[in-house]
Amino acid sequence: MSEQPGAALEIHGALHDWYAVLHVSGEFCHDAHLGARLRDAMAVLPMPDPPYLVLDLAGVASWDSWTIGAILSSAKRVMTDGGALVVAAAPADLLARCRQIRLDRAFRFRETVESAVEQLRSGV
């Protein structure tokens, strides 16, 4: 797990024509309410129908098991509504852990937001 000291967690969203991006930065850890924080950030975006979401983790300084739970709950929410989620720019150690526990079978990981959008466009 990343151990770099970072800034407080920040989540902000951007709506595009047919998809949304949630940009996450700072310490994405040590909080049992991470899933709720992502849900709240998604709620303020007028999500497309069906919801297509890129979760941009490029700014994440540290993570823990709560992070994986938050990603899972976000993916579940999006997929339940008939959409898709792609994770972009996950820290290498988080990506390795997600692959180890086979989360890469539930949704996709890409190196950049742009490649994540292309993945969504091609039908995940």
What this model shows, in words?
By secondary structure, the chain is of the alpha/beta class. Strands 1-2-3-4-5 form a five-stranded mixed beta sheet. The chain is built from four helices and five strands. The longest helix has 16 residues, at 65-80.
Please describe the structure with a list of short key phrases separated by commas or semicolons.
five-stranded mixed β-sheet, Transcription Regulator spoIIAA, about 120 residues, alpha/beta, globular, 5 strands, single chain
Topology (SSEs and partners):
Layout: E1 10-15, E2 20-28, H1 34-43, E3 52-63, H2 65-80, E4 84-88, H3 92-100, E5 108-110, H4 113-121
Parallel strand pairs: 2-3, 3-4, 4-5
Antiparallel strand pairs: 1-2
Computed Rg: 13 Å
CATH class: Alpha Beta
Q: Catalogue the unreliable spans.
A: none
> Class by helix and strand content?
alpha/beta
Order of helices and strands: EEHEHEHEH
At a glance:
This protein is 35% helix and 28% strand. It is α/β, with parallel strands linked by helices and 124 residues long. It has a single domain (10-121), classed as 2-Layer Sandwich (Transcription Regulator spoIIAA), CATH 3.30.750.24.
